[in-house]
């Protein structure tokens, strides 16, 4: 019996010693998240388009940290309280970041914070290669193709209202235009041969003295060749070519953003929107 009592006392003393080694089980303070969005400033409140963020978790009595960035990617766990992350969305999105701080014996506290992050569109390398030839490539309106120009209601994606027959606009200053896309610097050059065809009310962008509306061919120095930059936009499903100033493809409607509906190695069908309709153009590579 004495041996039995001695064993129990020894066990109790051992448990007391282990508990004292753990120290007081003080729960971590609720985490405070300090979030730094890469490139964020007064001009770029959602960042520089890289999608990169850095988060520091402050929580007294915490030894381990777990963070979820709100975009479905796997959570990160570390004994370091600073984390970096790269979002993969396109455009501006708002995320809720959740941090869990753990202390002795796994006791934990949780905190959240919201952040808006901009990530610019990264074009498919196949699109860049097709458009620029990974160097410089020239295009023109595919004048011999049915439906190389067209228009529809803005709610549909085929030229239901009007579809141009081959060479339908011959002699109006559109078929001799050459569009050159250069990969280095995203440079766009429009060889106009001193004539531009489009809607007169929008061709005022080239010649402010114009009055009136309707189909019109602008000629002379106001319609001279020009060079500017272009870019890409889109998401997982849609691709767009965007011009910085006056750039356009086909007829001019005062629009500088073109959705790519179809593309092969040598041909593209594009769509732009200008109320009350949507306009279409097919272009073909000549280099």
Tags for this model:
2 domains, 287 residues, 2 helices, Lipocalin, Immunoglobulin-like, mainly beta
Condensed summary:
The protein is mainly beta and 287 residues long.
List the helices and strands and how they pair.
Elements: H1 2-22, E1 32-37, E2 52-58, E3 64-68, E4 76-78, E5 82-86, E6 91-102, E7 108-119, H2 125-132, E8 136-141, E9 149-153, E10 162-163, E11 178-182, E12 187-191, E13 195-199, E14 215-219, E15 226-234, E16 239-243, E17 257-263, E18 267-274, E19 277-285
Antiparallel strand pairs: 1-2, 2-5, 3-4, 3-6, 6-7, 8-11, 8-19, 9-10, 9-19, 11-12, 12-15, 13-14, 15-16, 16-17, 17-18, 18-19
What does this structure look like?
This protein is mainly β. It folds into two domains: 25-119, Immunoglobulin-like; 125-285, Lipocalin (Beta Barrel). It contains two helices and 19 strands. It has helices at residues 2-22, 125-132; strands at 32-37, 52-58, 64-68, 76-78, 82-86, 91-102, 108-119, 136-141, 149-153, 162-163, 178-182, 187-191, 195-199, 215-219, 226-234, 239-243, 257-263, 267-274, 277-285. The strands form four sheets. An eight-stranded antiparallel β-barrel has the order 8-11-12-15-16-17-18-19. A hairpin with a 7-residue loop joins strand 3 (64-68) and strand 4. The longest helix is centred in the N-terminal third of the chain and has 21 residues, at 2-22. The radius of gyration is 31 Å and the shape is elongated. The termini are far apart. 25% of the residues are buried. The model is unreliable at 7-20 (pLDDT under 50).
